[in-house]
Write a structure and sequence with these properties.
The complex is a heterodimer of chains A (422) and B (222).
Chain A (H helix, E strand, L loop, with lengths): L1 H10 L26 E7 L10 E6 L10 E6 L6 E6 L5 E6 L5 E5 L8 E6 L2 H5 L1 E10 L2 E9 L8 E6 L4 E6 L13 E4 L4 E4 L5 H4 L3 H5 L2 H4 L5 E6 L4 E7 L4 E6 L8 E5 L4 E7 L5 E8 L9 E6 L5 E6 L4 E6 L7 E7 L7 E3 L5 E5 L16 E7 L4 E8 L7 E8 L9
Antiparallel strand pairs in A: 1-2, 1-28, 2-3, 4-5, 5-6, 6-7, 8-9, 9-10, 10-11, 12-13, 13-14, 14-15, 16-17, 17-18, 18-19, 20-21, 21-22, 22-23, 24-25, 25-26, 26-27
Chain B lengths: L2 H17 L21 E2 L4 E3 L5 E3 H5 L3 E7 L9 H15 L9 E7 L7 H11 L6 E4 L4 H11 L3 E5 L5 E7 L3 E4 L4 E6 L6 H14 L10
Parallel strand pairs in B: 4-5, 5-6
Antiparallel strand pairs in B: 1-10, 2-3, 4-9, 7-8, 9-10
Classes of the chains: A mainly beta (422), B alpha+beta (222).
Chain lengths: 422, 222
């Protein structure tokens, strides 16, 4: 019996691991493949608005709920520290939320009652313990969290690294970004392909730049040189970079195609306004190549967040400057084609879609000092339905009018998500 | 159905299920010993029962060896659950038994998630059926679900006992598949879920720990 079993097991292959709602760590469990119930928005406090504090805002997105599309809770964490991105632990019970200015990490319990998150721990010594500043991406591994930092304590430039913490919040490893073989030492996003033991990272800029006023930054030619221009392909298990790709213009969010057997990833470069494909060539060598323009690169539309469909057939790409979301057909990832566009607001940054792609949510804020000024500084969460042809707005929340702040990263929860594994 | 018949069928359910269980595709892995497995957390101890019904401290069952610790329950048949762990352990055991680096250093431990339905009498069937190979494979169960709970919580091993409309347990234990690789000093060095659990991954990491702990011993004679 054992011999038969072993033979069968050795001969068989499983499909690659599924991922969460198209953009989270594939190591995360409890996928919400049906209707998300709550949407949590990591929100930057604004001086003179409401309690002025950064906060986690919870919105009811249950379609038949009397409070659908309404804010049902907000947890102020105190102060303004450039609230930015969030990520779930592998068990989806806790949501880690980072601030790029003071490098604090807030851990919210969203497992006990997702409709009422609770702040359970604050990590406030990341720079002292690691030398890194600006915790950006939170990417779950089993029992631990990879945190991609953007900067460093020494000079606040773009040289940085990855911190590994266990789920209790203890630092267990630090890994510098590659500075050899073409590496610039910068970091931004993390995306893992567990079936291939591969990790991809991208590169942005350091604290000095991301905390600078956008207008001042654009006029500072020296500062404009301090942006990432690389992606790195890592051996995940060894946490060692295997190869560095030249990807000029600050490659930001990375998404692996989730389709079984796909074996490719995409990113968008913010300053050069291009979609890049990371894929093996005919010799089996991993390469990164520009495969499409996003809008008119000469007008610097500034592509920001992207969201890939679960079947890797399409990709939402937001361009901040014109407040527009664009849908690219990825059926041939070597030649993506824009097939749809819609203006969401005066500015738009983050995009999150449900697993089935039927609901798409947008928020407005990029960075406190990079957001537009005056009446163009719209701050919102907007929910849309997507029928394959048209985005139709279901609700909108004006974060300024409601005294909340600048709406940034979004994450879904549900009260009883179906377990991935029994 | 007699009680013994039920327990035997339960114990064999997971064995039967794993026959049809596909394993995750082997990943491109670095050579053993060329990388470091970080100390993720101390492995918690717990008072458990062995096949004879005798008390066993979990850390005494893992200390000194390179240990792969997994959880199961006898009636588990979900192809994405225990059978994957079972098939992985089985394949790893076969390969490790002829690997000079692992044959005296690797130990396998399975702990039942369902002490009520998997008492020592059931564990004994598994121990007698599976625990006789060159690589020690120890089957344990908890004195009760309540006494098992702190161990599961400390390891982040979520479970839920499914109930029917009347509140009676159906026998299904909802759980997220996890396997823990523990070093001879008692630290969890890797945690595998369905996304990364293959015999190749497990053995590669076990060899890395065996190289780091040449004094490790599973108690078996070479």
């Amino acid at each position: 019996m054992h011999k038969i079993a072993v033979a069968l097991a050795a001969a068989a292959f499983a499909s690659p691991a599924g991922a969460d709602e198209t953009c989270n760590s594939p190591f995360m469990t409890s996928l919400i493949k049906g209707q998300e119930q709550y949407l949590h928005v990591w929100t930057l406090g604004v001086k003179g608005l409401g309690d002025e504090s950064d906060k986690l805002v919870t919105v009811d997105v249950i379609p038949d709920s009397p409070t659908y599309g309404k804010v049902i809770g907000a947890i102020s964490v105190g102060g303004r520290g450039e609230a930015h991105h969030m990520g779930f632990t592998d068990d989806r019970k806790y949501l880690w939320a980072g601030r790029l200015d003071d490098s604090k990490i807030f851990i919210f319990d969203v497992g006990t009652d997702p409709g009422k998150p609770k702040l359970v721990r604050t990590i406030d010594d990341l720079p002292e313990k690691t030398g890194f500043v600006g915790p950006h991406t939170f990417y779950a591994l089993p029992g631990r969290m990879l945190v991609q930092a953007l900067s460093n304590k020494k000079d606040h430039g773009g040289i940085t690294g990855i911190v590994t913490l266990n789920n209790a919040g203890d630092v267990i490893a630090t890994t510098p970004m590659p500075r050899e073989n073409g590496g610039d030492g910068y970091g931004y996003d993390i995306a893992i392909n567990p079936g291939e033991n591969l990790m991809l990272t991208s590169s942005f800029t350091g604290w000095t730049n991301y905390m600078m006023d956008m207008g001042q930054l654009l006029g500072d030619s020296a500062a404009m040189k301090n942006f990432g221009a690389t992606m790195a392909l890592w051996d995940l298990k060894a946490m060692k970079p295997d190869k560095v790709f030249a990807v000029p213009g600050a490659p930001l969010e990375i998404r692996w195609a989730l389709k079984p057997g796909a074996g490719w990833a995409v990113t968008a470069s913010a300053l050069t306004s291009k979609l890049w494909l990371v894929k093996q060539d005919e010799r089996g060598e991993w390469q990164a190549k520009a495969v499409a323009d996003i809008g008119d690169p000469a007008s610097i539309p500034l592509p920001v967040d992207i969201s890939i469909a679960a079947d890797a057939s399409s990709l939402w790409v937001n361009t901040f400057m014109d407040g527009t979301t664009r849908l690219f057909d990825l059926s041939n990832p070597e030649a993506p084609k824009q097939v749809y566009a819609k203006k969401i607001g005066a500015q738009v940054n983050m995009v999150s879609q449900s697993w089935d792609g039927k609901r798409v949510y947008f928020t407005s804020s990029l960075l406190a000092n990079w957001d537009k000024k005056g009446s163009d500084n719209e701050q919102f969460l907007k929910g849309y339905s997507w029928d394959g042809k048209e985005l139709r707005q279901d609700f909108a929340i004006d974060f300024t009018e409601q005294g909340l702040g600048r709406a940034h990263h979004m994450k879904f929860t549900a009260r009883a998500p179906k377990a991935e594994t029994k | 159905m007699t009680m013994r018949g039920a327990t035997v069928r339960g114990a064999l359910a997971v064995l039967t299920a794993f026959l049809a269980t596909p394993l995750a595709q082997a990943a491109r892995l670095p050579p053993p010993g060329s990388y470091v497995l970080n100390r993720i957390q101390p492995a918690p101890s717990a008072r458990l029962l062995n096949a004879e019904g005798k008390t066993v401290e979990l850390d005494s069952a893992t200390r000194g060896a390179v240990t792969a610790l997994g959880f199961f329950y006898g009636q588990c048949s979900d192809p994405q659950g225990c059978p994957i762990a079972w098939a992985t352990f089985e394949a790893a055991r076969v390969e490790a038994s002829v690997d000079p680096l692992l044959e005296t250093r690797l130990r396998l431990v399975f702990v039942s998630l369902d002490p009520e339905r998997d008492p020592p009498s059931v564990v004994r069937l598994l121990q007698e059926g599976e625990g006789q190979g060159a690589i020690p494979w120890l089957f344990l169960t908890g004195p009760s679900a309540g006494e098992l709970a702190p161990l599961l919580a400390a390891l982040g091993q979520d479970i839920g006992y499914e109930t029917d409309a009347a509140g009676r347990r159906t026998g299904v234990v909802n759980h997220l598949l996890k396997v823990f690789l523990i070093d001879p000093e008692g630290y969890v060095r890797e945690i595998y879920t369905t996304a990364f659990l293959t015999p190749e991954n497990l053995l590669n990491d076990a060899r890395t720990l065996a190289l780091a702990f040449p004094q490790a011993s599973n108690g078996a004679s070479p």
